[in-house]
Design a protein that fits this description.
The complex is a heterodimer of chains A (about 625) and B (about 350). Chain A has one domain (about 1-615): Maltoporin, Chain A (Beta Barrel). Chain A is built from 6 helices and 39 strands. Chain A is mainly beta. Chain B has helices spanning about 5-15, 65-70, and strands at about 35-40, 50-55, 65, 80-85, 90-95, 100-105, 110-115, 120-125, 130-135, 145-150, 155-160, 165-175, 175-180, 190-195, 200-205, 210-215, 220-225, 230, 240, 245-250, 255-260, 270, 275-280, 285-290, 300, 305-310, 315-320, 325-330, 335-345, 350-354. Chain B has a 4-stranded antiparallel β-sheet with strand order 3-2-1-30. A 4-stranded antiparallel β-sheet of chain B has the order 4-5-6-7. A 4-stranded antiparallel β-sheet of chain B has the order 8-9-10-11, with no helix packed on it. In chain B, strand 2 (about 50-55) and strand 3 form a beta hairpin. The longest helix of chain B is centred in the N-terminal third of the chain and has 14 residues, at about 5-15. The chains are: A mainly beta (about 625), B mainly beta (about 350). The interface of A and B includes residues 344 and 470 of A.
């Protein structure tokens, strides 16, 4: 019981950001300005892009999207509750979420709650496997998720309205307007979701009580060409969440909860880009704000809170020495201030970093990139980080990619400054560091794509909260973990006359072993499979989606586990496009076979449920 | 002793000494698979491991995990806080589930379950046909804590008594219920005395900070181990030292106070044959009940989460990292040496002799 407080501390997920990162746009790709820098400097990494049609198939949270379309495993505290990722066997704070080039993991707990990211608001979402701390900052150990907004400098004016209604009184509305001219682009998107979320706990008389949630997401982006060589861009995103957290199913009884969690995250980024064919110079300023309030009793206006502000200024200079060699220098300064009910003597952080990237195409077939980064800060000792990656095009059908890097995860405000019943932060922590490597192969043959990636990650000085005396837990740099495994991705797509067929499957095999005990980490499944098949005939399309999540250990001695499960979803879509009207009607059934399963202990997942969605474009 | 002989002797003594045979377990038939053994209550873990009860036979030849689940094919959830015993029944208290599950203490077959009227229940004690259950109420509220009185004829909460914050363990003497107030997630420094003969009137006795464990001494007075409190609002945490307090049960006043010093915070206490055993900083200390100062030398080393004593043996559980198997260790108090150890489940916490 005494560690319930601590569990709240550990599970309550908050949001915000980190600094340094870079990625963006490079020389204009005709009229579409998007994130080409990510592609340019990640050639030796596995990059997967999630397409629009895939994004539409799942519910609007990033958890739902990635759970069914990647090898990333999620610990979701019931649908809509807090949700953290485990990528390649790493911990919740070792996957970085990158918003338009900026790391937005929380300063308070180092994680991103994947249920606070609305996928409707982004033009493309990419998964980058492997270490990326040099370019993307703290936490990019397992990999990083990139949320990007594109700018289209062409005459257009588009409106999209999407409304959806589903089981458990789940209602969603989404509106996005995009406006473009030759030198101006603007978009605004609003996303609102409300759900009673009171699904049945199969095999019991109970429902998911106190699980209702409301989420509002607002996105706004604007770009202006001042002249041919200068572009100004502004990005903004605000998330406001008001969620009740449901109780636990304990044996044959329901532990009622009246917890409530309110959180707000807002992110703004202003960027000035000056470029020629020879160089690109970018100066950016970003502000990231996160704030959460946790109510032990949703009927009483008493809460504990945490918040942080992060101000980032960054200068990025990319120079093309010749057709084959590019160098990129980046300096970055972050000022971070955190405060909260349970933070005592929390210092503000000043983090200064310098990064150098050198990319060299040795031949048409082979290129490599070397990155190095050093930072200086007042809070902890920071290691020198590096990355080396390369890609070798053996033939048109066969590519080999490899990378090796040193990465880190900095101690969070919780780790350093928490003071509250049951826990005491440790200001002497050092960053977790990893040395890792991977090798990947990609085969393509006509309509068929296959990629096989093997990786190894050694992480040292992992921060773990342990009991230091009878009633007080404290974090220490105690564990060393070896994670290794393989990811296999196969895709097939073809079309004939008015038909199209596509098939995608991902398989992840993940070992994540505590070096001292030789045991697998808790909540890391050995196997995970996702598959989807979709078939389109004229304006009708149908899909079937399948997830197998292997069993996970829930004790550090691997004596107890939660069973594996499989879930199937199906959907049908009708697309109407004409000169005057474009709309799509989607009908979906999730958990088709009404499987009773748990993803996190004591928290049953939803029974079979339905959704109907209308997307209207004009 | 073979079974036939036991049976025969049992019947014989049963016939001859029918009125006083109750006190002599060795002469009785085992009343179920879990008679004549040690029950270890486990809290379970937030990560998804339910609380449970393990059984170790008195001769240590048999150990079984999760006996409630084995018999009844269901789990009870977290955190399994304590077990109370009354006649042939055991009452398993699970705080987050807000339940008390009634089982036959020897067979562990489920008899009933109390699912309403409890909120964060902690311990249960008994007077006649009533069970007294300490409840923290809503853990975020300091003012809704209560004692629930269970009617044992139908296992329902018949009435509640509001009390000060964080009621924890209980001892009963002369119709009075002595309740230590550890303070829940906060802090408190009283022992409530509830008079069951007088409409459950409540009287408060001030003791040290965060009183938890209670034990009768030879004279029938009550020793209270107060752990001391931690002020989490300052850094480094401000702690108060623990205290050992003796309450005179004839007039419900504090008879003796022995202070720990240097912010020392003791955790567990057990009483055995004129001595008080307590744990402090991963050591077990032994103090004569007539002593006025604390011992300086420890008798046993070990980081324990629960401790009980019987037949000159100290039984202690180690919860290890609270997320893997724990361990039960048995020490011979004649030489303080460890004699046996057994693997336990996740977060073993309380030891009872059945």
């Amino acid at each position: 019981m005494k560690y319930r407080i601590l569990c709240i501390l550990v599970t309550v997920v908050i949001f915000t950001q980190q600094s340094f990162t870079q990625e963006n746009i490079n020389i204009l790709d005709e009229v579409l300005v998007s994130d080409t820098k990510l592609n340019k400097f990640s050639e030796g990494y596995k990059l997967s892009k999630l397409s629009d049609s895939v994004i539409r198939q799942n519910d609007n949270s990033l958890t739902g999207l990635l759970r069914y379309n990647s090898t990333i495993y999620f610990r979701e505290n019931g649908i809509g509750g807090t949700s953290s990722a485990s990528f390649r066997g790493t911990g919740a704070s070792q996957t970085a979420v990158i918003w338009n080039g900026i790391n937005i993991n929380s300063q308070l707990n180092g994680q991103t709650d994947f249920n606070t990211i609305s996928v409707n608001n982004y033009d493309n979402i990419l998964i980058r496997g492997g270490g990326g701390s040099v370019q993307y900052g703290s936490g990019a150990i397992g990999g990083s998720i990139h949320l990007n907004n594109d700018f289209r400098f062409v005459n257009h004016f588009e409106n999209t309205i999407r409304i959806a209604h589903g089981s458990f009184n789940t209602n969603e509305a989404h509106y996005k307007v995009k406006f473009g001219r030759e030198k101006v682009y603007s978009d605004v998107g609003v996303d609102y979701l409300y759900s009673d979320n009171d699904y049945k706990y199969l095999g019991t008389p109970f429902r998911n009580e106190n699980g209702d949630l409301r989420k509002l997401n607002i996105n706004a982006n604007t770009g202006v060409f001042i002249n041919e060589k200068n572009l100004l861009k502004f990005y903004h995103n605000t998330f406001i969440g008001d969620r009740n957290f449901s109780g636990l199913l304990l044996g044959n009884s329901l532990s009622s909860s009246n917890d409530k969690f309110k959180d707000t995250n807002s992110r703004s980024l202003l960027e000035w880009k000056n470029f020629t064919k020879q160089y690109t110079s970018r100066l950016s300023v970003a502000h990231l704000h996160e704030m959460f309030r946790f109510f032990d009793n949703n009927e009483i206006e008493e809460y504990s809170f945490g918040k942080s502000n992060n101000l980032i200024t960054k200068y990025d200079f990319l120079y093309k020495i010749n057709e084959d060699i590019q160098v990129n220098a980046i300096t970055d300064y972050s000022w971070i201030q955190g405060e909260g009910t349970n933070f005592i003597n929390a210092e503000s952080r000043n983090i200064f970093s310098g990064t150098l990237i050198f990319k060299h195409a040795l031949s048409k077939k082979f290129n490599y990139t070397f990155n190095v980064r050093q930072e200086a800060t007042n809070v902890y000792d920071s290691p020198l980080l590096f990355a080396l990656d390369g890609k070798y095009n053996v033939s048109d059908n066969y590519k080999i990619k490899f990378n090796t890097s040193k990465n880190y995860r900095i101690p969070t405000y919780n780790d350093l400054y928490w003071l509250g019943p049951g826990g005491e932060g440790n200001p002497d922590l050092v960053p977790e560091t990893s040395i890792q490597g991977e090798i990947g192969q990609e085969f393509s043959f006509k309509d068929f794509l296959l990629s096989v990636t093997a990786y190894y990650i050694n992480t040292e000085d992992l921060i773990r909260w342990i009991p230091v005396s009878g009633s007080v837990w404290s974090p220490v740099n105690v564990d060393e973990v070896n994670s290794y495994g393989a990811e296999i991705n196969a895709e097939y797509s073809t079309s004939w006359s008015k038909n199209a067929l596509s098939f995608i499957t991902n398989y992840g095999y993940t070992k994540s072993i505590n070096k001292e005990t030789d045991n697998q980490l808790i909540y890391v499944p050995l196997h995970k499979v996702t598959s989807s098949v979709s078939f389109t005939h004229k304006s009708l399309s149908a899909y079937y989606q399948f997830l197998y999540n292997g069993s996970v250990f829930i004790t550090t001695d691997n004596a107890n586990e939660i069973d594996g499960y499989d879930v199937s979803n199906v959907g049908l879509a009708y697309t109407h496009s004409s000169k005057h009207m474009n709309f799509i009607i989607d009908v979906k059934a999730n958990n088709l076979f009404n499987k009773n399963y748990q993803n996190v202990g004591f928290r049953p997942m939803p029974n079979r449920n339905y959704q109907i969605q209308l997307t209207y474009k004009f | 002793m073979n079974f036939k002989k036991l049976l025969y002797t049992g019947i014989l003594f049963g016939l001859i000494l029918s009125s006083c045979s109750d006190d002599d377990d060795s002469m009785q038939l085992p009343r179920g698979e879990y008679d004549n053994g040690i029950l270890i209550s486990h809290e379970g873990s937030f990560s998804g491991v339910s609380g449970q009860v393990s059984f170790v036979s008195n001769d240590f030849s048999d150990t079984q995990d999760d006996i409630y689940n084995t018999v009844n094919n269901e789990t009870l959830g977290i955190f399994q806080q304590s077990i109370g015993f009354k006649d042939d029944l055991a009452f398993i208290v699970v705080d987050n589930a807000n339940t008390i599950t009634v089982v036959n203490r020897f067979t562990f077959e489920k008899v009933d379950q109390i699912t309403t009227g409890l909120q964060t229940p902690r311990y249960i004690s008994f007077i006649d046909d009533k069970g007294y259950v300490t409840n923290w109420g809503d853990t975020s509220s300091a003012t809704d804590d209560f004692i629930a009185i269970i009617d044992l004829s139908d296992y329902t909460v018949s009435t509640t008594i509001p009390v000060s914050e964080g009621p924890e363990q209980m001892l009963i003497k002369d119709g009075l219920v002595y309740v230590s107030h550890k303070g829940g997630f906060g802090s408190n420094n009283i022992v409530s005395v509830i008079d069951s003969n007088n409409s459950n009137a409540v009287k408060e006795v001030e003791v040290g900070d965060n009183p938890d464990e209670l034990a009768f001494d030879t004279a029938g007075n009550i020793w209270v181990l107060c752990g001391g409190k931690t002020d989490f609002s300052v850094t480094p945490f401000a702690k108060t030292s623990g205290t050992l307090v003796k309450i005179n049960t004839s007039d419900q006043t504090v008879a003796t106070t022995i202070n720990f010093t240097g912010e020392e915070q003791p955790e567990l206490m057990a009483y055995y044959e004129g001595n008080i055993y307590y744990t402090l900083n991963s050591k077990v200390y032994k103090m004569d009940e007539s002593a006025t100062t604390l011992p300086t030398e420890s008798v046993i080393d070990g980081s324990f989460y629960g401790m009980s004593i019987r037949d000159n043996k100290l039984y202690a559980v180690d919860a290890k990292d609270f997320s893997a198997k724990g361990e039960l260790k048995i020490f011979d108090l004649s030489n303080n040496q460890e004699t046996n150890s057994f693997d336990m489940g996740v977060v073993p916490a309380k030891i009872y002799f059945n």
